[in-house]
Amino acid sequence: IKLLSAVTVNNQLTFLSGTLNLNGQVLTLGSNASILYESNMRRIYGVSGFVKTTRIINNVTNFNPGNIGVSFTLSDNLDTTIIEREHTAYTINDDITVSRSYKVTPRFNSGLNASVKMYYHDSEVPTLPDRFLDYKSIDNGATWTIDTPNISNTSLKYIQKDNISSFTKYSFIAIESIGALPVEATEVKISCDNMNKKVSWNT
User: Fold this and answer.
1) CA-atom Rg of the chain in angstroms
2) How far apart are CA 55 and CA 79, in angstroms?
3) Cα distance between residue 23 and residue 46, in whole Å
4) Which residues contact 156 (CB under 8 A, 6 or more apart)?
5) Half-sphere exposure of 120 (CA within 13 A, CB side)
6) What's CA 86's distance to the chain center, in Å?
7) pLDDT, tens digit, for every residue of 53-80?
8) Taking a C-beta distance cutoff of 8 angstroms, is the pair 135, 171 a contact?
């Protein structure tokens, strides 16, 4: 399905099969709406446009408003909070972010101590990651600064950030760990010096 205009969902957006292309439009989840059964093969996508919901967030634990994909844990009162989920892949220092970002705009947005889990699907990640680098933007994606996450859970598909004092826009880059590199030695020398073994080689 491809959106041709802005749409507001007031109940449930249920994925039984297929995908939903935002096509540059805004999909608004009403105050009681939620996304159901979204998965790697049945999901929202689109190089432009975004999903948006506005909720009251006060003193919550693992609260994922409308199943939009970001879960809040905090004892603070954010009050009315706008959450936007975007599927644009950004280029940061020649690296490509995952095709998902979150922008959180609370009424009260300073002096916080919040934790969030930001979920993603494998199909949104350009390379299978061992971990992620998290980036934040205070100018809606024009520029980004690194802000390494506390936890990258590649099994449950989320990036967790703790001790957030104020919210902004977030995206992340997948990082592959580099293992031992193969080396071919042309000459190896082993010797003993006062019971100490010495090994040297040329490549």
Assistant:
1) 22
2) 8
3) 6
4) none
5) 34
6) 10
7) 999 999 999 999 999 999 999 999 999 9
8) yes
Instruction: Please give the backbone phi and psi of residue 59, each rounded to the nearest 5 degrees, phi first.
Output: 50, 70
Tokens of 188: 């190896």
Phi first, then psi, for residue 67 (nearest 5°) are 55, 35
Q: Are 82 and 105 in contact (CB under 8 A)?
A: yes
Could you report the per-residue pLDDT of 144-191, keeping only the tens digit for each? 999 877 898 989 999 999 999 999 999 999 886 433 334 444 454 444
Q: What does residue 123 show for φ and ψ, rounded to 5 degrees?
A: -70, -10
Q: Which two tokens stand for residue 52?
A: 């948006």
- Global pTM value: 0.85
β-strand partners of 73: 115
User: Is 44 in contact with 20 (CB distance < 8 Å)?
Assistant: yes
- What are the Cα distances from residue 8, in Å, to 1, 18, 21, 25, 148? 15, 20, 15, 11, 34
Tell which residue, 160, 57, 72, has the closest CA to residue 108: 57
CA distance 130 to 92: 19
Distance CA 13, CA 4 (A): 17
